[in-house]
Amino acid sequence: MPVLTTTALMVKASKRVDLAGIRTERLLLRAGKKGDLQAFRKWFEDPEAMKYWSEPVYTRVQQTRDFLDNMIESANNGNLEFAVCLVDPEPEAADRNATTKKSRKAPKPIVIGLVGIWDENEVGFIFNREYWGKGYASEAVRALLEKFWAEHPSDEALVKADVDPRNESCLRVLQRLGFVEVGRAEKTYETHIGWCDSVYLEARKQRPSN
Ligand SMILES: CC(C)(COP(=O)(O)OP(=O)(O)OC[C@H]1O[C@@H](n2cnc3c(N)ncnc32)[C@H](O)[C@@H]1OP(=O)(O)O)[C@@H](O)C(=O)NCCC(=O)NCCS
């Protein structure tokens, strides 16, 4: 068990405040927990979801467990890094067929993705492929940005993104949320798919126009 210094205790205390998470129309963004392991495996073990990630697809459960453990230990967890839960998922087919209200179980929120603003204010997100194309990534990242702007009211504050130009769905999500391209570079990362290029984007808080 780690010995908690005063700073660590303060981090714990501030994390407790944020445990309620952020509620959007369809989603809850909350701190990652140990019990999220199976949900996180859904994207970390999916070659399609991991195509433009900085690491190759995970082949061992331990890799996801390590990711989650690090997330749980991080002061960012529940502050700028969140497990994204679908609050009111479609009931299981069996429950849909239940005839009486009593026999129908209320569907439990399920974890469908991960969003965060990490080092150097760079945004990142990844979702379970079963839930792509329904606007969940856009809804979650919008809420994350709102939290960031609320905590960084300065006009200088900005959030960055570094995206492979082939990652069209990611670029569309970011552009929809107000990110603008500020540059490009070739061969910026060598990953499991070979050399990747970068589109650099930035977003600033939208100011109400007079
Ligand atoms: C990037 C990623 C998160 C995007 O997920 P997504 O499901 O495509 O994102 P969204 O659902 O928010 O938006 C995508 C589409 O859903 C549509 N959509 C459907 N229902 C919608 C709704 N109710 N509200 C808003 N948009 C909706 C949007 O119009 C959008 O379509 P378009 O992009 O063709 O115009 C996903 O592709 C992913 O996990 N990729 C792998 C990881 C990755 O590459 N991450 C980026 C690097 S950090």
From TrEMBL:
Source organism of this protein record: Gymnopilus dilepis
Phylogenetic placement of the source organism: Eukaryota, Fungi, Dikarya, Basidiomycota, Agaricomycotina
Database matches in PANTHER family: GNAT FAMILY, PUTATIVE (AFU_ORTHOLOGUE AFUA_3G00765)-RELATED-RELATED, N-ACETYLTRANSFERASE DOMAIN-CONTAINING PROTEIN
Molecular-function GO terms, alphabetical: acyltransferase activity, transferring groups other than amino-acyl groups
Residue ranges of domain N-acetyltransferase in the record: 27-202
Protein name: N-acetyltransferase domain-containing protein
Domain of life: Eukaryota
InterPro entries in the cross-refs: Acyl_CoA_acyltransferase (IPR016181), GNAT_dom (IPR000182), N-acetyltransferase (IPR051531)
